[in-house]
Amino acid sequence: MIMLKSLFPTKYPYQNNIKTSFDVKINKFPQLNLDFSQDFLRFFRFHDDDKEDAKMYPEYSYLNLEGKTNTVTEVIWINDIYNHPKYKQLFKKYNDLIFYKKTYSKILKDIIDSKKDIFKEIEIDSKIDSEIDSEKAVEKAIKILEDIKKEIDAKIKLEAKDRYSNSIRQYNDDKDLISKIIENIGYTKENINKIEFDPSKIEKNTSISLNEFDNKIKSFINQINKYENKIDETLYFKNDQILLDLFEKIKYIKKTIDNIKDNVYLYYEYFNKKDIKKKIIYDNKITDTKKIEKFKDFFDEINKFLYNVYPSNNGYLQKKINEYINNENDSLLDIIKINDISKHIKEIYTGVNINISENSNEIFLHIDVIEGEINDDNKQNIKCIYPGEKLTDKLDTLLSTNEKKYELNPRRMLFVLDEMKSYSKKGFGNNVKAINPVENNGEPQITGGKSKIEGKSRKYICKKNTTRRLKSYYIMN
Hints:
The protein is of the alpha+beta class. The chain has three domains: 2-79 and 363-476, no CATH class; 87-109 and 277-361, no CATH class; 122-271, no CATH class. It contains 15 helices and 13 strands. Strands 1, 2, 3, 8, 9, 10, 11, 12 and 13 form a nine-stranded mixed sheet that branches. It has a two-stranded parallel sheet with strand order 4-5. A hairpin with a 4-residue loop joins β11 (459-462) and β12. α5 packs antiparallel against α9 and α6 (137-160) runs antiparallel to α7. The radius of gyration is 39 Å and the shape is rod-shaped.
């Protein structure tokens, strides 16, 4: 603050009008001015002459902006995470992620619910056309497979009489395959309506996890493929339509599971939970990485503030960032979510950042200026108009429904000294009228004598075209 007061002294409208966003917006009290006594300042001066003192220690400071001299009227050191330009990007990425997480969570839930209904619609024991056969498909298929087993048993007995036969092992393998298919048909029929998608709700003997069911069906499909490959190789593997229809239904169940598994995992492991874990971007169970791009964007942004990239000299803040990145503590999210800031005052202060890549310290300043050179000789020209307009803008801010509790007013008022002189000479009276701008290629327009609000600024127009303009400047580094 001493450095800033040395670089940007102000005398108009207030002496030492230098603040910090942390004090103004977080602590809710204005920055106390550090007014040094003349005796104290004289200790550092090299000349006793008053004119020389005035040259070395000016009470006004000026900036060259766009080739024009501007008088500094207010300086705000942006030193809280809610206003700091770089930390604000972290908030933006977080809010984008939360919106996406909330929206896509509902989409995933709808997808899962619709797939659950598909499972219910798959009646693997549905009846064959009643005019042909009233027996249930599953029972009919099992009967066909049991008949195949009997045929294989008969062949085994026949081959057993020939002690040189090499076919018995193959017959036993075929019989074992049929037995496993029968077993899995029964398992599928019994458990298809017991699948529990949420891993935390699986109950013993009453439900089964989707992964467990999927592994069983996967094995079942392999057995079905072996059966179908043997249809043309043997006389006893039947090409029966009832059996093949049942196999097609089992394959359809498998396709449905494959279609929903990734969504189920994402929803119950990440989207349906309040916490936001970094492990999601490294999770190899997630096949569709496009669904987690917002998570990746958020963590990429946090990584920009690591201690070896862009650290703050506020150790409390830096510790919270490092702990969150290392999955040790989630309290950084409470700060980002602006939950009870009284508990996080120490961490909200950004301090001074060290830009490792440029080997420099970095702060950001919010600066108000008047276009023109204000001094003791000419400040009388605007002594009424400037404070009045400044107070009007502050009132607009207070009454604005878009005002955010912890954010600095983004509208920075730039007054033009030469035009203000016209105000002072003519007065407001009938010479000035206020309109709201309607954007047209960036230029305010008057339409039919009526005003329409589009944008954040107002424009005053005098009969002699003197104007009060609103602009925004950030002085960085």
